Amino acid sequence: MGTAMGAAGRTEAGMNRRRAVLLAAVIAAVATVAHLRFWNESDHLLYDSPQYLTNARSLAERREFLDDSGQPDVRRTPGYPLFLTIFAPLDFSHAAVAGAQHLLAIALSVAVFLAARRILGNDPAAFAAALIVATDTGQVVMADFVMTETLASVAFFAILPLALAAVRSGGRRRWWCLLAAGLLIGGAALIRPAATYLLLPMAFWVFAFSPGRRLRATALFAVAGMLLPAAWIVRNTVRAGLPKLSSIGAETIYAWRGAGVIAMERTGFQYAPLPFSGEEEFRHQFFRVVQHEVSDAQRAEEIRRF
Q1: What does the DSSP assignment read for 22-86?
Q2: Does the global pTM surpass 0.70?
Q3: DSSP assignment, residue 196?
Q4: Cβ distance 55 to 67 under 8 Å?
Q5: Are 40 and 210 in contact (CB under 8 A)?
Q6: Gap between the Cα atoms of 206 and 214, Å rounded
Q7: What is the Cβ-side half-sphere exposure of residue 171, based on CA atoms within 13 angstroms?
Q8: pLDDT at 54 over 70
Q9: Contact 91, 117 (CB under 8 A)
Q10: Which letter does DSSP use for residue 198 in this model?
Q11: pLDDT(41) > 70
Protein backbone atom coordinates (compact mmCIF):
# COMPACT_ATOMS: atom_id res chain seq x y z
CA MET A 1 0.00 0.00 0.00
CA GLY A 2 2.84 2.34 0.84
CA THR A 3 4.41 1.62 -2.53
CA ALA A 4 1.15 2.47 -4.29
CA MET A 5 0.81 5.73 -2.36
CA GLY A 6 4.40 6.63 -3.19
CA ALA A 7 3.81 5.95 -6.87
CA ALA A 8 0.64 8.06 -6.78
CA GLY A 9 2.55 10.89 -5.12
CA ARG A 10 5.29 10.74 -7.74
CA THR A 11 2.66 10.74 -10.50
CA GLU A 12 0.93 13.79 -9.03
CA ALA A 13 4.25 15.58 -8.61
CA GLY A 14 5.10 14.84 -12.22
CA MET A 15 1.76 16.20 -13.36
CA ASN A 16 2.30 19.37 -11.30
CA ARG A 17 5.71 19.88 -12.89
CA ARG A 18 4.32 19.38 -16.39
CA ARG A 19 1.47 21.80 -15.68
CA ALA A 20 3.96 24.37 -14.37
CA VAL A 21 6.12 23.99 -17.47
CA LEU A 22 3.07 24.35 -19.72
CA LEU A 23 1.81 27.46 -17.95
CA ALA A 24 5.29 29.00 -17.96
CA ALA A 25 5.52 28.32 -21.71
CA VAL A 26 2.14 30.02 -22.25
CA ILE A 27 3.30 33.07 -20.27
CA ALA A 28 6.53 33.20 -22.30
CA ALA A 29 4.57 32.94 -25.55
CA VAL A 30 2.13 35.69 -24.60
CA ALA A 31 4.98 37.95 -23.46
CA THR A 32 6.90 37.28 -26.68
CA VAL A 33 3.91 38.21 -28.83
CA ALA A 34 3.38 41.41 -26.81
CA HIS A 35 7.02 42.42 -27.10
CA LEU A 36 7.21 41.62 -30.81
CA ARG A 37 4.15 43.80 -31.29
CA PHE A 38 6.00 46.76 -29.82
CA TRP A 39 9.38 46.11 -31.39
CA ASN A 40 10.30 49.37 -33.07
CA GLU A 41 12.55 49.82 -36.07
CA SER A 42 13.50 53.32 -34.94
CA ASP A 43 16.72 54.27 -33.14
CA HIS A 44 15.32 53.13 -29.73
CA LEU A 45 16.23 56.45 -28.11
CA LEU A 46 13.99 58.30 -25.70
CA TYR A 47 14.41 61.17 -23.24
CA ASP A 48 17.66 60.46 -21.34
CA SER A 49 18.98 57.67 -23.62
CA PRO A 50 21.85 59.75 -25.12
CA GLN A 51 23.14 60.61 -21.65
CA TYR A 52 23.18 56.96 -20.56
CA LEU A 53 25.06 56.03 -23.74
CA THR A 54 27.58 58.81 -23.15
CA ASN A 55 28.18 57.52 -19.62
CA ALA A 56 28.53 53.95 -20.89
CA ARG A 57 31.05 54.96 -23.57
CA SER A 58 33.04 56.85 -20.96
CA LEU A 59 33.10 53.79 -18.67
CA ALA A 60 34.09 51.46 -21.49
CA GLU A 61 36.72 53.66 -23.12
CA ARG A 62 38.11 55.82 -20.30
CA ARG A 63 37.13 53.92 -17.14
CA GLU A 64 35.53 57.12 -15.86
CA PHE A 65 31.94 58.23 -15.37
CA LEU A 66 31.83 61.43 -17.41
CA ASP A 67 29.11 63.48 -19.09
CA ASP A 68 29.12 64.74 -22.67
CA SER A 69 31.31 67.71 -21.71
CA GLY A 70 33.99 65.46 -20.22
CA GLN A 71 33.19 66.40 -16.61
CA PRO A 72 32.39 63.98 -13.77
CA ASP A 73 28.69 63.22 -14.12
CA VAL A 74 26.62 63.63 -10.95
CA ARG A 75 23.22 63.71 -12.66
CA ARG A 76 23.13 60.00 -13.47
CA THR A 77 23.98 56.96 -11.37
CA PRO A 78 26.22 54.21 -12.79
CA GLY A 79 23.97 51.15 -12.61
CA TYR A 80 22.37 51.32 -16.04
CA PRO A 81 25.46 52.64 -17.90
CA LEU A 82 27.42 49.70 -16.44
CA PHE A 83 24.82 47.37 -17.95
CA LEU A 84 25.20 49.14 -21.30
CA THR A 85 28.95 48.48 -21.33
CA ILE A 86 28.08 44.86 -22.17
CA PHE A 87 27.23 46.16 -25.63
CA ALA A 88 30.55 47.97 -26.18
CA PRO A 89 31.80 45.24 -28.58
CA LEU A 90 28.66 45.94 -30.67
CA ASP A 91 29.41 49.69 -30.66
CA PHE A 92 26.51 50.16 -28.24
CA SER A 93 23.96 49.07 -30.84
CA HIS A 94 20.61 50.52 -29.81
CA ALA A 95 18.79 47.58 -31.39
CA ALA A 96 20.93 45.09 -29.44
CA VAL A 97 20.18 46.86 -26.16
CA ALA A 98 16.45 46.90 -26.93
CA GLY A 99 16.50 43.24 -27.93
CA ALA A 100 18.26 42.23 -24.72
CA GLN A 101 15.78 44.24 -22.66
CA HIS A 102 12.83 42.59 -24.40
CA LEU A 103 14.32 39.19 -23.53
CA LEU A 104 14.85 40.29 -19.92
CA ALA A 105 11.23 41.45 -19.68
CA ILE A 106 9.96 38.15 -21.11
CA ALA A 107 12.13 36.21 -18.66
CA LEU A 108 10.84 38.43 -15.85
CA SER A 109 7.23 37.45 -16.57
CA VAL A 110 8.16 33.75 -16.38
CA ALA A 111 10.13 34.35 -13.18
CA VAL A 112 7.11 36.08 -11.65
CA PHE A 113 4.98 33.01 -12.43
CA LEU A 114 7.48 30.58 -10.92
CA ALA A 115 8.05 32.72 -7.81
CA ALA A 116 4.35 33.38 -7.23
CA ARG A 117 3.60 29.67 -7.71
CA ARG A 118 6.21 28.72 -5.13
CA ILE A 119 5.08 31.37 -2.63
CA LEU A 120 1.32 31.00 -3.06
CA GLY A 121 1.05 27.35 -4.08
CA ASN A 122 -1.75 28.41 -6.42
CA ASP A 123 -1.33 28.02 -10.19
CA PRO A 124 -4.25 30.28 -11.28
CA ALA A 125 -3.13 33.14 -9.03
CA ALA A 126 0.49 32.79 -10.16
CA PHE A 127 -0.59 32.66 -13.81
CA ALA A 128 -2.73 35.80 -13.41
CA ALA A 129 0.13 37.69 -11.77
CA ALA A 130 2.57 36.70 -14.50
CA LEU A 131 0.06 37.51 -17.23
CA ILE A 132 -0.23 41.07 -15.89
CA VAL A 133 3.55 41.46 -16.09
CA ALA A 134 3.71 39.86 -19.54
CA THR A 135 1.14 42.24 -21.03
CA ASP A 136 1.85 45.39 -19.04
CA THR A 137 2.18 48.07 -21.71
CA GLY A 138 4.60 50.12 -19.64
CA GLN A 139 7.02 47.22 -19.34
CA VAL A 140 6.60 46.21 -22.97
CA VAL A 141 7.01 49.64 -24.50
CA MET A 142 9.89 50.83 -22.29
CA ALA A 143 11.87 47.66 -23.02
CA ASP A 144 12.18 48.98 -26.57
CA PHE A 145 14.16 52.04 -25.49
CA VAL A 146 17.61 52.61 -24.04
CA MET A 147 16.12 53.47 -20.66
CA THR A 148 16.43 52.11 -17.12
CA GLU A 149 12.92 50.70 -16.59
CA THR A 150 13.49 47.07 -17.62
CA LEU A 151 16.74 46.58 -15.72
CA ALA A 152 15.23 48.27 -12.67
CA SER A 153 12.19 45.98 -12.77
CA VAL A 154 14.44 42.92 -12.86
CA ALA A 155 16.50 44.23 -9.93
CA PHE A 156 13.40 45.06 -7.88
CA PHE A 157 11.95 41.60 -8.46
CA ALA A 158 15.20 39.82 -7.59
CA ILE A 159 15.11 41.37 -4.11
CA LEU A 160 11.96 39.40 -3.25
CA PRO A 161 13.25 35.79 -3.35
CA LEU A 162 16.42 36.80 -1.51
CA ALA A 163 14.45 38.54 1.25
CA LEU A 164 12.06 35.62 1.54
CA ALA A 165 14.92 33.13 1.70
CA ALA A 166 16.51 35.24 4.43
CA VAL A 167 13.47 35.12 6.73
CA ARG A 168 12.66 31.48 5.96
CA SER A 169 16.10 29.95 6.37
CA GLY A 170 18.58 29.69 9.17
CA GLY A 171 22.29 29.49 9.77
CA ARG A 172 24.80 31.11 7.49
CA ARG A 173 22.45 30.97 4.52
CA ARG A 174 20.13 33.43 6.24
CA TRP A 175 22.88 36.01 6.75
CA TRP A 176 24.21 35.64 3.22
CA CYS A 177 20.70 36.15 1.83
CA LEU A 178 20.21 39.26 3.95
CA LEU A 179 23.54 40.63 2.78
CA ALA A 180 22.73 39.89 -0.86
CA ALA A 181 19.24 41.39 -0.64
CA GLY A 182 20.60 44.57 0.95
CA LEU A 183 23.34 44.92 -1.65
CA LEU A 184 20.78 44.38 -4.39
CA ILE A 185 18.63 47.22 -3.06
CA GLY A 186 21.72 49.42 -3.10
CA GLY A 187 22.45 48.31 -6.64
CA ALA A 188 18.87 49.07 -7.64
CA ALA A 189 19.33 52.59 -6.24
CA LEU A 190 22.29 53.03 -8.58
CA ILE A 191 19.97 52.12 -11.47
CA ARG A 192 17.08 54.29 -10.33
CA PRO A 193 17.80 56.53 -7.31
CA ALA A 194 14.16 56.35 -6.18
CA ALA A 195 14.91 52.78 -5.05
CA THR A 196 16.63 54.23 -1.98
CA TYR A 197 13.15 54.71 -0.51
CA LEU A 198 12.57 50.95 -0.77
CA LEU A 199 15.15 50.25 1.91
CA LEU A 200 13.07 51.60 4.81
CA PRO A 201 9.88 49.52 4.32
CA MET A 202 11.96 46.46 3.48
CA ALA A 203 13.97 46.92 6.69
CA PHE A 204 10.73 47.04 8.68
CA TRP A 205 9.59 43.91 6.85
CA VAL A 206 12.82 42.06 7.70
CA PHE A 207 12.45 43.10 11.34
CA ALA A 208 8.82 41.96 11.48
CA PHE A 209 9.31 38.56 9.89
CA SER A 210 12.81 37.52 10.95
CA PRO A 211 12.60 34.33 13.03
CA GLY A 212 15.20 35.51 15.53
CA ARG A 213 17.95 38.04 16.22
CA ARG A 214 15.79 40.66 14.59
CA LEU A 215 17.91 43.67 15.39
CA ARG A 216 21.06 42.02 14.06
CA ALA A 217 19.29 40.87 10.89
CA THR A 218 17.76 44.27 10.25
CA ALA A 219 21.04 46.06 10.90
CA LEU A 220 22.91 43.80 8.47
CA PHE A 221 20.24 44.30 5.82
CA ALA A 222 20.11 48.09 6.27
CA VAL A 223 23.89 48.57 6.29
CA ALA A 224 24.26 46.40 3.18
CA GLY A 225 21.53 48.42 1.49
CA MET A 226 23.35 51.69 2.18
CA LEU A 227 26.85 50.60 1.18
CA LEU A 228 26.69 51.16 -2.59
CA PRO A 229 24.68 54.42 -2.50
CA ALA A 230 27.01 55.75 0.22
CA ALA A 231 30.05 54.88 -1.88
CA TRP A 232 28.57 56.78 -4.83
CA ILE A 233 27.78 59.79 -2.64
CA VAL A 234 31.42 59.81 -1.50
CA ARG A 235 32.48 59.71 -5.16
CA ASN A 236 30.23 62.65 -6.04
CA THR A 237 31.53 64.60 -3.06
CA VAL A 238 35.18 64.00 -3.92
CA ARG A 239 34.87 64.48 -7.69
CA ALA A 240 32.30 67.26 -7.87
CA GLY A 241 31.74 68.61 -4.37
CA LEU A 242 28.14 67.36 -4.36
CA PRO A 243 27.27 65.19 -1.32
CA LYS A 244 24.25 63.61 -2.99
CA LEU A 245 23.40 60.39 -4.80
CA SER A 246 22.22 62.34 -7.85
CA SER A 247 21.54 65.95 -8.75
CA ILE A 248 18.76 65.12 -11.21
CA GLY A 249 15.94 65.51 -8.68
CA ALA A 250 16.93 69.04 -7.68
CA GLU A 251 17.55 69.99 -11.31
CA THR A 252 14.14 68.71 -12.32
CA ILE A 253 12.41 70.68 -9.58
CA TYR A 254 14.39 73.85 -10.27
CA ALA A 255 14.25 73.87 -14.07
CA TRP A 256 10.99 72.09 -14.74
CA ARG A 257 8.38 71.40 -12.12
CA GLY A 258 9.23 74.21 -9.73
CA ALA A 259 9.17 76.75 -12.54
CA GLY A 260 5.86 75.37 -13.78
CA VAL A 261 4.26 75.60 -10.34
CA ILE A 262 5.38 79.22 -9.90
CA ALA A 263 4.19 80.13 -13.40
CA MET A 264 0.80 78.50 -12.82
CA GLU A 265 0.39 80.30 -9.52
CA ARG A 266 1.21 83.69 -11.07
CA THR A 267 -1.09 83.19 -14.06
CA GLY A 268 -3.95 81.73 -12.05
CA PHE A 269 -3.97 78.62 -14.24
CA GLN A 270 -5.97 75.77 -12.69
CA TYR A 271 -5.16 72.20 -13.68
CA ALA A 272 -6.70 68.85 -12.80
CA PRO A 273 -5.19 65.79 -14.52
CA LEU A 274 -7.58 63.58 -16.43
CA PRO A 275 -7.50 59.79 -15.97
CA PHE A 276 -4.84 57.97 -18.01
CA SER A 277 -3.37 61.21 -19.37
CA GLY A 278 -1.70 62.83 -16.38
CA GLU A 279 1.55 64.61 -17.09
CA GLU A 280 1.27 64.51 -20.87
CA GLU A 281 -2.00 66.41 -20.60
CA PHE A 282 -0.33 68.87 -18.24
CA ARG A 283 2.51 69.46 -20.69
CA HIS A 284 0.12 70.03 -23.56
CA GLN A 285 -2.16 72.36 -21.63
CA PHE A 286 0.55 74.40 -19.95
CA PHE A 287 3.20 74.61 -22.65
CA ARG A 288 1.04 74.49 -25.77
CA VAL A 289 -2.10 76.31 -24.66
CA VAL A 290 -1.73 78.39 -21.52
CA GLN A 291 1.73 79.78 -22.27
CA HIS A 292 0.56 81.00 -25.68
CA GLU A 293 -2.56 82.53 -24.17
CA VAL A 294 -0.46 84.37 -21.58
CA SER A 295 1.99 85.56 -24.24
CA ASP A 296 -0.82 86.75 -26.51
CA ALA A 297 -2.45 88.61 -23.62
CA GLN A 298 0.87 90.23 -22.73
CA ARG A 299 1.45 91.39 -26.31
CA ALA A 300 -2.10 92.75 -26.53
CA GLU A 301 -1.58 94.69 -23.30
CA GLU A 302 1.70 96.14 -24.61
CA ILE A 303 0.01 97.24 -27.84
CA ARG A 304 -2.86 98.81 -25.90
CA ARG A 305 -0.55 100.71 -23.57
CA PHE A 306 2.12 101.79 -26.05
Answers
A1: HHHHHHHHHHHHHHHHT---S----TTHHHHHHHHHHHHHHSS-B-TTSSBP-SS-SHHHHHHGG
A2: yes
A3: G
A4: yes
A5: no
A6: 8
A7: 1
A8: yes
A9: no
A10: G
A11: no
